[in-house]
Each structure stands twice: as C-alpha cells, then as structure tokens.
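Students often ask why inverse folding is considered easier than folding. One informal answer: many sequences map to the same fold, so there is more than one right answer. In these notes we will look at a single instance of the problem. The structure comes first.
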C-alpha cells in the first residue's frame, strides 16, 4: 500500500495559502476539507464545502492511488489518472470529438490566468496587452496574474515567492481594465464600452503589442462582460489579431455555450469549485485550434515550474520538456470531486435544469425585492444569442447580489457586513451554518461604499431538486430562510442600537 497523507490533508495540498487551514481548521473562505451536510449552501460564487458523495468519489480515487504498485512513481500515477479525468471532462462536455482542442490543468482559476499571461507574453518590443472589463468582479489575484506577477506568497508547487513581483524578467505582459460599471455601481452603456475597447485594441496593435481580450462569463455579480454582441463584433473586426479568452471560471455555462466558444476559437478558462461546487481549487484551460497548433511549440520561463507540472499539459506540447515530473494529488482529487458533481449534473436534461432555475430565479428575485432593507444589484439578462441559438439553462440568473441598509437607509459598512457574513457562516445550537458568497464592491453611492452579499444556485442544488419530489420547494424555502434571517438580524441590530441610546440618555 502506497504511503499517502490522509485524504482531508491532500484535499488542501497543491494550492496556495488560500486553501491552507487556520487554527479553526478552515481555509481563507471559511470552509473545512470535509463534508457538512447541515449547511444551507448558497455560496458557490465564492467556494463550497465538498459534498458527501463527492468526498466518497475522491476517497475511491485515493484508495486506487494507494493500491498502485511500488515500482510506479507518484508522477506516473498522477499522469495516468489526470489523463482519465481530462478525458472524462471532455466527454461530459461533448468536446471529446473536437478536432485540435487541447486541455491544460491548473491548481486554480488564477493560476490559469498566470499561465495564459506567460503562454502569450512577448518581449520588450512586443509585450502582451491583456484587457479585462470590470476587474473588481473577477478573482482578487487576476490583475497580478495577467501582469505576469506572483499573485500570492506561495505557489501551487510549494515555493515561497514575493507577491506582486514579476515571475520572469524575460517575458512581458501588461494589463488594463475597462469598468463595466460607473463609479456609483450602475451599468455603463454597451456602446461606450465598445468604443473604449476599440480604442485600446487599435492603440495596442499600432504599437506592435499582442492583444488578449478577457471576457467574463460570468462575473461575481452575474454579468457577462463585455456583452456577447460586443465580443462577436470585435472578433469579426480583428480576427486572429485579437486573442479572446473567456473567463468562465464560475462555470455557469451550458454545454452548448461552451462548445460555441470553442468553435469560435476562444480560449476558455473553467474551474470546478464555483457552480459545480467542488472543493477549491481546480482549474481547466481549453485551447482550441488554431491556437493549440501555434502554442504547442512555446516554452515557459523556468520560474513557471513552481506553478505547473508536466502531466498537466498535452502530450505533444514542447513545454512538457521544461517542466518537472511532479505529482499534485491534491489537484487530482479536487478535480475528481468536481467532475463527480459535473457528471451528476449532466445526467439531468437541459429542459429540467431550465425549469428548475427559472423558478428559483423568479422566486428569489421576488423575495429580495420585497425586503425594504435589501437592494438588488443591477445586472443584465444573460444574453448569448449572438453566440449560440436556442434556449438553455445558462440564460437564467444563478447569482443574486444584494446590498444591505440600516434603519436610516445607509449601506452597511464593510466591518458590519463582514461581521454579519461571519455570523451567518457559524453554526450554533439554534441553526446550521448559512453560506453566502463573500461581499463584493459595487460602487459608491452618495459617498458610501456599496458592498453586496451573494446568494447563489449551484449544480449540486439543481441535481438535488431534480432527484427529489419536493426538492426545489425545499431549496427555495431554505434560501428564503437565509434571507429572512438576515432581515431579522438587521432589525435586531436596530433594536439593540435604540436600546443602547435609551440607556445612554437615561
């Protein structure tokens, strides 16, 4: 029997300090690496607790790894088992017959962005210019990663680095962000964003820069940014002079939309830890033809060996020769857990998912709108008709962002909101933990910073709803319970404040 660390330890290995456990046995997001079936789990835009079934699937693979003969190295086992998971993902996504499509694995969505920056990076006289829309609505380390900088203090390979420092002095990448919202958090006009993107792309190309447009599908508050008509127009205008990567790390994407992105030649970044509700971290990068042909001969700077290993790359890519034969069983097991959730999701029909999510969207949007202390954050319909024809579940909102106000109509401060978030996430004798997406900034109104919590629907919740006769009723009731509890806490805080003032006056 191969000597392996316990499964719960491996599930938090092979990442960075974001999944290291604190003194309470929880990672930076507040989650333990073991199941908690009592949670009210609506936090998938940030992270999720691994489910009991996904943990069992990971444990089965863990036992399989442990039973491998001693003459096989960890790196060989990792290569073999990761190849199986890659094939499983492509099969489940309907992409297994896609000619020229390659797949790269990574420890997280942020690692994918760093890999992309270095795959496409240029020299001093032809650097890469990466353009994103609304950087504050993507991962916190994305800007550093797209600037080809270390985004944390520890790499997935275990190296200690200086956060914010350049990974390599040889490769050059720059980043610029175009806000999707005005300073007050209101959505900007599509034409205004298009015009700004046109100017930036033309300027970069005129200065002999490579240009990558990063399309968020979807952002932390549920936007597609820039909108798909804008993306398709820019794609038609610039052709292969403009590289496009879809940041679909939330993975709130139907198989039809995913295939359409690949068919148009767009890179697609995915993770298994958001909508799929697998444990954090796991990342996948789809590289379609012709980019797979153009990049298969590309090398990476030696410093990237701290972030990625040979088995995580396609067999025929030259970069494998420069990377270590290193096993990351943590990534492997997290991917296995995520793909368990994905397979369960794919077994339910598109029509059923659409019906489930349509009702959840309608009921929860209405419930939020009825609460005077809640302010729903403005979004747009998830319109992908310029990309793919038909009606699919990913046209329904699955992230519901809302700001909270006190009795006087002022937005809750960051400290107050974080205190509420932390209180919700703690279980006690009266209730179980209530999990929401972490607060995200949504502009300033009248000098007040507006922060929003997020209630999220996930693949796991849709599967539960489909398999249980009254499952959707139960899920909606639990979501409303969370929202009602927040409302009660706001009222209780007001009462406590008033009582305190009465005592002071007395």
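Output (designed amino acids):
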């Amino acid at each position: 029997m191969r000597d392996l660390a316990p499964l719960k330890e491996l599930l938090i290995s092979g990442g960075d300090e974001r999944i290291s456990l604190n003194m309470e046995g929880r990672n930076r997001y507040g989650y333990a690496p073991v199941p908690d079936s009592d949670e009210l789990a609506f936090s998938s835009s940030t992270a999720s607790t691994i489910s009991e079934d996904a943990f069992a699937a990971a444990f089965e693979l863990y036992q399989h790894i442990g039973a491998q003969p001693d003459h096989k190295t960890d790196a060989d086992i990792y290569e073999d088992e990761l190849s199986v998971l890659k094939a499983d993902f492509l099969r489940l996504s309907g992409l297994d017959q896609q000619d020229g499509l390659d797949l790269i694995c990574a420890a997280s969505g942020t690692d994918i962005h760093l890999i992309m920056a270095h795959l496409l990076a240029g020299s001093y006289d032809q650097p890469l210019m990466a353009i994103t829309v609304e950087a504050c609505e993507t991962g916190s380390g994305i800007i550093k990663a797209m600037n080809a900088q270390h985004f944390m203090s520890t790499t997935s390979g275990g190296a200690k680095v200086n956060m914010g420092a350049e990974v390599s002095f040889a490769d050059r990448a720059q980043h610029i962000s175009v806000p999707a919202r005005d300073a007050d958090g209101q959505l900007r006009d599509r034409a205004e964003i298009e015009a700004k993107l046109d100017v930036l792309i033309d300027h970069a190309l005129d200065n002999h820069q490579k240009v990558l447009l990063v399309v968020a599908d979807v952002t932390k508050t549920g936007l597609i940014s820039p909108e798909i008509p804008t993306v398709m127009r820019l794609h038609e205008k610039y052709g292969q002079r403009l590289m496009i990567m879809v940041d679909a790390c939330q993975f709130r994407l139907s198989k039809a939309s995913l295939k359409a992105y690949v068919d148009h030649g767009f890179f697609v970044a995915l993770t298994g830890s958001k909508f799929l509700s697998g444990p954090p971290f796991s990342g996948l990068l789809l590289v379609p033809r012709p980019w797979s042909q153009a990049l298969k001969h590309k090398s990476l700077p030696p410093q990237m060996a701290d972030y990625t290993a040979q088995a995580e790359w396609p067999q025929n890519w030259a970069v494998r020769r420069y990377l270590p034969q290193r096993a990351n069983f943590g990534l492997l097991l997290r991917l296995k857990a995520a793909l368990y959730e994905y397979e369960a999701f794919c077994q339910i029909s598109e029509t059923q998912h659409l019906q489930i999510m349509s009702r959840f969207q309608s009921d929860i949007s209405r419930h939020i709108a009825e609460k005077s202390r809640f302010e729903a954050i403005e979004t747009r319909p998830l319109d992908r008709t310029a990309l793919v024809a038909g009606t699919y579940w990913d046209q329904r909102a699955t992230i519901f962002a809302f700001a909270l106000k006190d009795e006087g109509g002022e937005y809750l401060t960051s400290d107050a909101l974080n205190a509420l978030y932390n209180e919700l996430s703690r279980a006690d004798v009266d209730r179980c933990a209530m999990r929401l997406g972490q607060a995200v900034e949504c502009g300033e109104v009248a000098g007040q910073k507006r922060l929003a919590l997020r209630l999220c629907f996930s693949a796991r919740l849709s599967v539960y709803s489909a398999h249980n006769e009254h499952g959707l009723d139960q899920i909606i009731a639990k979501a409303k319970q969370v929202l009602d509890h927040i409302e009660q806490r706001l009222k209780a805080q007001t009462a406590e404040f008033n009582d305190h003032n009465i005592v002071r006056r007395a």
